[in-house]
Amino acid sequence: MNEQMGNVFFNRVACSVSKASGSLSAFVAALGVVVVWAGSGPLFRFNNTWQLVINTGTTIVTFLMVFLIQHTQNADTAAIHIKLDELIRVTHNANDELLNLEEMDQDRLEEIRQRYEQLAKTAAHLKAKKDRCMPGACEEEEPAGV
Questions:
Q1: 126 and 69, same structural domain?
Q2: Shared-domain flag, residues 67 and 126
Q3: Same domain, 64 and 127
Q4: Is the same domain home to 26 and 95?
Q5: Are 13 and 71 in contact (CB under 8 A)?
Q6: CA 64 → CA 17, 39, 50, distances in Å?
Q7: Cα(41)–Cα(50) distance, integer angstroms
Q8: How many domains does one find in the chain?
Q9: 116 and 98 in one domain?
Q10: Could you tell me if 110 and 95 lie in one domain?
Q11: In the chain, what is the greatest distance between 2 CA atoms, to the nearest angstrom?
């Protein structure tokens, strides 16, 4: 099997398992396993092997699920980035610098975040002014930071 076919197969398995593991049926099945295990405790006198069975089983399932869930999360995140990039690209007067945010260093991201935080404060100030003033009753004043 070549690498591309392996990736396609893994993607299909990961998506299927991710969807299935989030279903009510999967929860009921897992709950059933725990109930059967707990119910079998008296039969095995709650010994170390009985405890080891559930510990080992849950550890293996958790270990494998981490990789499957991370794979589907990476794919979802990439799809969202592409969709947002397309919206930015086609929006008139959009800041094209935002198309590449995930590649920027933390300092540059913080600069941009602060700029948008200031824009949000300015918008809130303008809205508050609009809400408390009747049309023509208040003098226009420059919002802070503009």
A1: no
A2: no
A3: no
A4: yes
A5: no
A6: 11, 26, 22
A7: 7
A8: 2
A9: no
A10: no
A11: 84
Query: What's the whole-model pTM score?
Result: 0.61
Query: Same domain, yes or no, for 63 and 84?
Result: yes
- Secondary structure of the chain in HEC code, one letter for each residue: CCHHHHHHHHHHHHHHHHHHHCCHHHHHHHHHHHHHHHHCCCCCCCCHHHHHHHHHHHHHHHHHHHHHHHHHHHHHHHHHHHHHHHHHHHCCCCCHHHHHHHHCCHHHHHHHHHHHHHHHHHHHHHHHHHHHCCCCCCCCCCCCCC
Distance between CA atoms of 41 and 43, rounded to whole angstroms? 5
**19 with 71: CB under 8 angstroms?**
no
| Cβ-contact 97, 112 below 8 angstroms | yes
Which domain covers residue 114, as residue numbers?
104-146
pLDDT in 10s for each residue of the chain, 146 residues? 688 888 889 888 888 888 899 899 999 999 999 999 999 999 999 999 999 999 999 999 999 999 988 998 998 999 998 999 999 889 988 888 888 888 889 999 999 999 999 999 999 988 888 888 766 655 555 555 55
